[in-house]
Design a protein that fits this description.
This protein folds into 2 domains: 3-134; 172-295, Arc Repressor Mutant, subunit A. A 3-stranded antiparallel sheet has the order 3-5-4. It has a two-stranded antiparallel ribbon with strand order 1-2. It has 10 helices and 5 strands. It is elongated, with a radius of gyration of 33 Å. The protein has 295 residues and is mainly alpha-helical.
């Protein structure tokens, strides 16, 4: 391929990329205008319902308010055919005049044109439009208060869910269920909407296990060999493919880290676990449990 052919091919690729970008932006704008026309239609329905006057299912009134709303709808991509359907009283010459005015209008001018109030703006989710009954400074203050309230509610919900998860973990009667609930605390949401799980050291899980009913004797005493009982359950869960284990370097030797696996995630196959103190980890047989009296 010669230099000129390469240059021509590159120019064609760049032109096709530009056309693809233009088509993508046009599709995004079409979807956006469809959403905003639907919200403006909802505003018309709310106003006619509040006034007690019905103009049909979608007809605009033959007055200044109807013409202002028609101009706003034209600004958001309403076609001439649909405009004649929504406003059968509008003449062709008047429609062209409204279309020219809509093309020159900015988004911030739509709210004052249709007399949008702050309550209507919130009810119909017309957040890109400026209301006519509050100033820009007051609107910014209300938006800041709304963001703080939303953030406060989100944190309260997160704390409530964390308390419920801790209570559920502590009241779990099965050890494998209690361990999985401990690992659920390390869950996070991935960009595609699914959940993933971070690694958690077993030493941190041991502190939670001391408060779980599943790792206590029937009379409520703590287990003397809690560590062995924890590792037995971890080995069984790893064999089932519910968790993944990994040894990492720590200050005093190797430290065991664990994370929960998704059902769709392939189960990794690893080697048997060994620790710096020389003791082997687990087996399928549960160790004999010893109770500490008075603990």
């Amino acid at each position: 391929m010669t230099y000129q052919q390469t240059k021509t091919k590159l120019a064609e690729l760049l032109a096709e990329r530009r056309r693809a970008g233009e088509r993508r932006r046009a599709e995004q704008w079409r979807r956006l205008t469809n959403i905003w026309r639907g919200r403006l239609t909802k505003l018309c329905q709310l106003r006619t319902k509040a006034d007690g006057v019905s103009h049909g299912t979608h007809h605009l009134p033959d007055n200044s308010d109807g013409r202002a709303m028609l101009q706003a709808l034209l600004r958001f991509g309403l076609t001439a055919e649909n405009a004649m359907t929504d406003a059968p009283w509008c003449e062709a010459s008047e429609l062209k005049k409204l279309q020219r005015a809509a093309r020159r209008m900015k988004w911030r001018d739509v709210g004052p044109l249709i007399g949008l109030t702050y309550d209507e703006r919130e009810a119909c989710k017309l957040w890109r439009l400026m209301p006519c009954d509050v100033t820009a400074a007051e609107l910014e203050r209300r938006q800041a208060d709304k963001r703080r309230k939303t953030e406060r509610e989100r944190r309260q919900k997160k704390r409530r869910e964390r308390r419920e998860a801790m209570e559920s973990m502590r009241n779990a009667t099965k050890r494998d269920d209690a361990i999985l609930r401990m690992l659920d605390k390390a869950a996070y949401r991935t960009p595609d909407g699914s959940f993933g799980y971070e690694w958690m050291p077993v030493s941190a899980m041991m502190k939670d296990a001391q408060e779980c009913k599943a790792f206590r004797s029937p009379d409520g005493w703590r287990l003397r060999n809690l560590r062995d009982a924890m590792h037995v359950e971890l080995k069984i869960l790893a064999k089932w493919g519910a968790i993944q284990k990994e040894l990492r370097d720590g200050r005093r030797g190797k430290v065991l880290w664990v994370r929960k696996l998704n059902l769709e995630e392939p189960v990794p196959v690893g080697k048997a676990d060994t620790f710096s103190d020389g003791r082997s980890v687990g087996g399928e047989k549960r160790p004999k449990l010893t109770v500490i009296q008075g603990g």
